[in-house]
């Protein structure tokens, strides 16, 4: 059996944004392997060529969302993005997520993302105590179905990075925060859904959304923040009409 390794293995050219400001690009060459993910590529560069390269990852299997980066101009989970789907003439370009300050290389500061999540009134406050029986919420109720349709968000930041309104308006709460507000507004166990609606619609809240749908297009778990935001807008109008 011939165990000689081939010497002419195809190479992939990887351009990675480096630094802590606007960033300059460094180019690396790595072997092009079958079923290779973008996260595999970044890891190989860090382990074999550039030990100081900074990036985030955890689970590697599409659960945590921490490996999100911009690949060839689009925000993605790199652990679930195969090189064969995104390479362009044997080249991939990897940058940090947009709309968040860069800390170093491919790592961004997500504090403003989570601060906006809080500003949208997204802390669950229950009405029951430990001594009360579990709430009897029917899975088939309209509100439960509306909440369930948007509840799988894990705050990876991809939708926030994809949103052009966030780029234009730094006060805009963003699709993830508003998507969460919609789930909480529809949660029949929550103590004050009116407060959620008020916070989600005030200032640069849901009414700043231009309904372009970039958040929906790029969501790795196929949620529709655009639909959630439309639900908040509709509920806000109905609330005004009832008061009138």
Automatic annotation (TrEMBL):
<dbReference type="InterPro" id="IPR001041">
    <property type="entry name" value="2Fe-2S_ferredoxin-type"/>
</dbReference>
<dbReference type="InterPro" id="IPR012675">
    <property type="entry name" value="Beta-grasp_dom_sf"/>
</dbReference>
<dbReference type="InterPro" id="IPR050573">
    <property type="entry name" value="SDH/FRD_Iron-Sulfur"/>
</dbReference>
<keyword id="KW-0479">Metal-binding</keyword>
<keyword id="KW-0001">2Fe-2S</keyword>
<feature type="domain" description="4Fe-4S ferredoxin-type">
    <location>
        <begin position="143"/>
        <end position="171"/>
    </location>
</feature>
<keyword id="KW-0003">3Fe-4S</keyword>
<keyword id="KW-0004">4Fe-4S</keyword>
<comment type="pathway">
    <text>Carbohydrate metabolism; tricarboxylic acid cycle; fumarate from succinate (bacterial route): step 1/1.</text>
</comment>
<dbReference type="GO" id="GO:0008177">
    <property type="term" value="F:succinate dehydrogenase (quinone) activity"/>
</dbReference>
<dbReference type="InterPro" id="IPR009051">
    <property type="entry name" value="Helical_ferredxn"/>
</dbReference>
<keyword id="KW-0411">Iron-sulfur</keyword>
<dbReference type="InterPro" id="IPR025192">
    <property type="entry name" value="Succ_DH/fum_Rdtase_N"/>
</dbReference>
<dbReference type="Pfam" id="PF13534">
    <property type="entry name" value="Fer4_17"/>
</dbReference>
<dbReference type="InterPro" id="IPR036010">
    <property type="entry name" value="2Fe-2S_ferredoxin-like_sf"/>
</dbReference>
<feature type="domain" description="2Fe-2S ferredoxin-type">
    <location>
        <begin position="12"/>
        <end position="98"/>
    </location>
</feature>
<protein>
    <recommendedName>
        <fullName>Succinate dehydrogenase iron-sulfur subunit</fullName>
        <ecNumber>1.3.5.1</ecNumber>
    </recommendedName>
</protein>
<dbReference type="InterPro" id="IPR006058">
    <property type="entry name" value="2Fe2S_fd_BS"/>
</dbReference>
<comment type="similarity">
    <text>Belongs to the succinate dehydrogenase/fumarate reductase iron-sulfur protein family.</text>
</comment>
<keyword id="KW-0408">Iron</keyword>
<dbReference type="InterPro" id="IPR004489">
    <property type="entry name" value="Succ_DH/fum_Rdtase_Fe-S"/>
</dbReference>
<dbReference type="InterPro" id="IPR017896">
    <property type="entry name" value="4Fe4S_Fe-S-bd"/>
</dbReference>
<dbReference type="Pfam" id="PF13085">
    <property type="entry name" value="Fer2_3"/>
</dbReference>
<keyword id="KW-0560">Oxidoreductase</keyword>
């Amino acid at each position: 059996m011939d165990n000689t390794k081939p010497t002419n293995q195809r190479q992939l050219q990887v351009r990675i944004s480096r630094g802590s400001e606007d960033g300059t690009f460094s180019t690396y060459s790595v072997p092009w392997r079958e079923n290779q993910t973008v996260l595999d590529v970044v890891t190989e560069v860090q382990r074999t060529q550039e030990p100081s390269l900074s990036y985030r990852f955890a689970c590697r299997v599409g659960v945590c969302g921490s490996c999100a980066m911009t690949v060839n101009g689009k925000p993605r989970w790199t652990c679930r993005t195969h090189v064969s789907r995104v390479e362009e003439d044997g080249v991939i370009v990897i940058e940090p997520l947009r709309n968040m300050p860069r800390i170093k290389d491919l790592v961004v500061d997500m504090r403003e993302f989570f601060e906006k999540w809080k500003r949208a009134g997204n802390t669950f406050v229950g009405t029951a105590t430990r001594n009360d029986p579990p709430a009897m919420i029917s899975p088939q109720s309209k509100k439960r179905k509306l909440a369930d349709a948007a509840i799988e968000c894990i705050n990876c930041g991809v939708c926030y990075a994809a949103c052009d309104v966030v780029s234009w308006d730094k006060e805009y709460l963003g699709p993830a925060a508003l998507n969460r507000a919609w789930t909480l507004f529809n949660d029949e166990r929550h103590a004050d859904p009116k407060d959620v609606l008020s916070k989600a619609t005030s200032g640069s809240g849901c009414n700043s959304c231009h309904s372009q749908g970039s958040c929906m297009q790029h969501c790795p778990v196929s949620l529709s923040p655009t639909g959630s935001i439309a639900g908040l807008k509709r509920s806000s109008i109905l609330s005004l009409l009832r008061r009138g």
